[in-house]
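quick one, 166 residues, struct below
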Amino acid sequence: MSLNQDLDPLTLRKVFAQHPSGIAALCAVIDGEKTGIIASSFTVGVSLEPALVMFAVQKTSNTWPKLRQAGRIGVSVLSERNDGVCVQIASKHGDRFAGVATRDTEEGALFIEESTLWLETSIYNEVEAGDHWVVFLEVHGHDVAKHSPQIFHDSRFHSLPVPELV
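---
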């Protein structure tokens, strides 16, 4: 093995694409408007007491300053049934939620229907990390569905089959 020392952001983007990751939509209703971002950097099990998950968001994001105002943020881990939802919510133009089935809570968390995992969260802490913010979220509630999760690998979307229970 010969390690490459090229740490150019474009090169790193291609290298990091080799790590398969789930796709999470982090959404809320703020002043009556649906707001959301997509994170492939979402991680569960950061802590069990308190229950914490985390994700990273670019400092240049125009949506994060709005979303971080929410009292509660809904995390929906997308499934194969959410085809096209990731690209739509990540879009910088148009109605990001047009035609997307959602449900919300009284506290303002917004969830994407047909996902494989839903978490109702609030911001626990934010840490500066280079050109990103690492955001820790405290989990207040959860639900799951037996759908195959959507994953992002090699800059493409794939599904991961869920084994049948015997």
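The first strand starts at residue 21 and ends at 22.
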